[in-house]
Amino acid sequence: MPLYDCMLLLKPHVTKERLMDLVARVGKHVYRRNGVITNMKSFGVVQLGYGIKKLDGRHYKGQLMQMSMMVTPNFNKELHYLNKEDRLLRWLLVKQRNTKYGMEFLDEDDAKSEMNQLRRRPPNYGEDDDEDEDDDYDEEYEVNQDEDDKVEK
Q1: Distance between CA atoms of 97 and 106, rounded to whole angstroms?
Q2: Where does residue 68 fall: left (phi above 0), alpha (psi -120 to 50 degrees), or beta otherwise?
Q3: Tens digits of per-residue pLDDT, 110-119?
């Protein structure tokens, strides 16, 4: 199943309970279709670039929510009941491209190369030894006293 992002832009005056009711309704629809919600984000009230006209007036602000989910490709057609939702200003379903997950994420070749890299690394790989490096650079910055005397004359 591909990974999708569902962006919901709700009216700014919608209460938190009604917002969670709508999100739960979409979530139940996802689960009924054997999908999985992987992430949910709320961006709070955002200023819009232009007013969105609805029956109750023009809205210049909105509450933005993002739901990431794994669902079947025909799920977009099943979300059209959101068009009749009076709490929503806009909604958008976007398919994430070039996202690897599940068995596609780890090919056999990739798995073997990862394991080989782990075996080759020394036990203290990635640890910083700054104390030894400081002593090595002292010789680079030594100044000849003779050259300084010539410059002053």
Answers
A1: 17
A2: beta
A3: 656 666 666 6
